[in-house]
């Protein structure tokens, strides 16, 4: 059993060794095709942001204690649902949550909302809806607090073209597997004898000797 397994492993190793250039070429072509597909299918995404200042100038230090609270308010489901309602349900609350990022500028009372979308107008609509909803929700929870827009969001101008590494990886693996399968299929259909192992496999008899072939000069 072990000898048969050893023979099979040696056989497949020889197949791959003989067809290494086929494997390299097919895998390379498949990978290049995957890279091209990744670039062509890359989705252009647009992002815009809006800066909101929290609190008054004289209590900026105290506002640091509320930073995490305001961030959680901005990321809350209630804000996302209100924003979705302002958009008449054109964008779901889940999509709004997934497309909006919130961060507070270090050592400041400035909160930045960033929205990413595949459409310029949609990105701008979402950021405005989220901003308005955040201010409304903040004022509802903290009536005495002061939340106001510092920098209004503008129409997105920056385009980020995404490149799919996954497509390239899948193309590489598919090319590698396809080339190995092709080699094994070619070897299976090839009935010619190329080595002593082939004779032993076909006839079930051991090889006791061989005759060398010499070219006559």
Task: Tell me about this structure.
This protein is of the alpha+beta class and 217 residues long. 57% of the residues lie in helices and 15% in strands. Strands 1, 2, 3, 4 and 5 form a five-stranded antiparallel β-sheet that branches. Strand 2 (100-104) and strand 3 (110-117) form a beta hairpin. The longest helix has 25 residues, at 165-189. The model has no long low-confidence stretch (mean pLDDT 78).
| Structural class designation | alpha+beta
What is the level-2 CATH architecture name of the largest domain?
Answer: 2-Layer Sandwich
Number of strands: 5
Helix content estimate: 55-70%
Largest sheet: 5 strands, antiparallel
Extract low-pLDDT stretches.
none
User: CATH superfamily of the largest domain, called what?
Assistant: EIF_2_alpha
Rg, rounded, reads 33 Å
Give the helix tally.
Answer: 9
- Choose one word for the global shape: rod-shaped
Order of helices and strands: HHEHHHHEEHEEHH
CATH topology descriptor of the largest domain: Alpha-Beta Plaits
- Please tell me the overall pLDDT: 78
Q: Identify the CATH class of the largest domain.
A: Alpha Beta
Rounded to the nearest angstrom, the distance between the terminal CA atoms is 47 Å
Number of domains: 2
Q: Per DSSP, what share of the residues sits in E-state strands of 2 or more residues? A: 5-15%
